[in-house]
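In response to a reviewer's request, we include the raw inputs and outputs for one of the modeled complexes. The two entities were modeled together in a single run.
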Amino acid sequence: MPIATQYFDVHQRMRDQGVIFSFVGYVSEGILFSLGEALKQKMRLEETDANVTKRVFSIFVAQVQNIIRYSAERLHADSGTPAEMSSGLITVGRDATHFFVVCGNIVGRSEGEDLRVRLDELVRMDPDTIKSYYREKLREPPEAGSRGASIGLIEIARRSTRPIEFGLTELDADRAFFCLKAYI
Amino acid sequence: MDRLQLPQTERSPLVDFDFDRQRLYLEGESYPEDAAAFFGPLIAALDRYLERLRAEPPASPLIVDLRLAYFNSSSAKAFMNIFQRLEAAACDGIEVRVNWHYQTDDETMMEFGEDFREDFQAARFELCVFD
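The model returned the following structure tokens for the whole complex.
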């Protein structure tokens, strides 16, 4: 297949799914910031309701920070956190009725199981329960070994206007691909 | 104590902690790369300051104004830490007033304000709408 046809096909398939932008590869805090700015600008130009824009942006930041902190595929500089890059997938789009934010990344098997337990719990909660759960977590001292994912996930559930969807697919004995889709 | 002033950046709020005038002001968006590194020094300064106020209770209140447009969950945790310290100081007899400013129609910031307000008994926490 000629190169233009090949990539036009990729481009069209994404457009057909309502994709506003999609990013695959190593993400850093700098990329999070730039993509976030582009997203806000796009929504402003389309005169999206300010509250919807805020919800989409909140979910986007929480999702991307989860990739940066928890992806099993990561590059570290010895100097520490600011140079951290982690591999993952980010897609923001809109269908006929909702905006959506999808994030995917590879996780260790036990982290994957842990995510499944937390998310199963969140999916079963109604909005008021999510709200009080968020308040409860905000008051707790940070969990050992956690860098805030638990509250990040609750934030995503809280800002979503439909229940979040998620899944895990096993890659090998130690690793799984995790993805989460939130609708606004 | 020297006044603590940090300029607003794209990802972190303006901070103005004027110890002598008993005012703390935060304004902007907050999703710093490293929330602990950003808020750590502010919380440490608040601890030192509240110790000083406990030793010598002031005649006028400590006034805290927050005017935030967006913050992530690690920043929310940091605000909670600050509020718990302010409420504890108020319980010890220091008069504390917290003003939570949010723009009309900003549902998220209004909701956060309502959430945080529930944690204050001794300190006064007010929701202040602006256009």
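As requested, we also summarize the result in words. Chain A touches chain B at residues 29, 33, 50-51, 54-55, 57-58, 61-62, 65, 81-82, 131, 134-135, 138-139, 142, 148, 151-152, 154-155, 159 (CB under 8 Å). The domain at 3-183 of chain A is CATH 3.30.565.10 (Heat Shock Protein 90).
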